[in-house]
Amino acid sequence: MTLFRAPSLIGPLVAAALLAAGCGGGASATTSNASGASGSKFAGITAPEIKPAPPLALRDSVGKPVNIRDYRGKAVVVTFIYDHCPDVCPLIVGNLHAAQKELGPEASKLQIIAVSVDPRGDTPKTVKAFLKAHQMTGRMQYLIGSRPLLEKVRSAWHIVARSSPKKRNPDLVEHSALIYGISASARITTIYPANFKPAQLVHDVPILASQ
After folding, report:
1. Contact partners, residue 94, CB within 8 Å, separation at least 6
2. Around Cβ 16, how many Cβ atoms within 10 Å?
3. What is the chain's Cα-based Rg?
4. Rounded to the nearest 10 degrees, what angle do helices 88-103 and 198-209 cross at?
5. Strand, coil or helix: 68
6. Using one digit for the tens of pLDDT, what is the confidence trace for 97-132?
7. CA dist 132 → 75, 110, 156 (Å)
8. What is the pLDDT of residues 37-62, one digit of tens each?
């Protein structure tokens, strides 16, 4: 499994402490189990520089236009995954599902957005099956699109993705695997590794939704 350093969007201080893991057949998710900095009010990592979230406007897996701007006033988490990932992506989605469940009524303050890193493999049919299997149907926006559209979004969000060089697993995609926490004012505020604890997001969502 290839490890990519955390994208420059979150700054060198966080990049030095946080690794984003790429998916790999049979490999385990080995991202840093980072927590909020000492004295931070967040359980996740506070972004070293609070910046406006980059543009994010695509169609979801059922063809509905989705624009992150429409969720101003809510806490938003954004992650980049693919639906046939064998390890890291299911871990991320499982933790997001657990956090939603633990939030209870507070879950109404949270919007989850996943963006595909595999334009060829992620189809409306496969995404539908993935969402059903992970009990996330209607609970998470899963955005797909053409390669040029997805590459444009990844570039804006400083996400790395590439096909696995391993010939025995040609369908694997190695990619940056972390979660951005976006405040109600549409600013990147917190960062979470792939193996974040659901309790971290449960703690942070009300704060993000109030900012």
Report:
1. 134
2. 10
3. 16
4. 60
5. helix
6. 999 999 999 999 999 999 998 888 899 999 999 999
7. 24, 20, 29
8. 445 699 888 888 888 999 999 999 99
